[in-house]
Amino acid sequence: MRKRVIAICFRVICVDKIRVAGGTRLLVLAALAAFVAGCSTHRDAETSRLSSGRTIRVVDRRMIRDSFTFHYCAGYDFDHLDGLRAEVKEVWRDLQLQAEQSGATDATIWANNCRWRLVWPSWRPVVVSDEEASFSYRRRDTGEWVFDGGP
Question: What is the distance between the terminal CA atoms of the chain, rounded to a whole angstrom?
Answer without folding.
Answer: 34
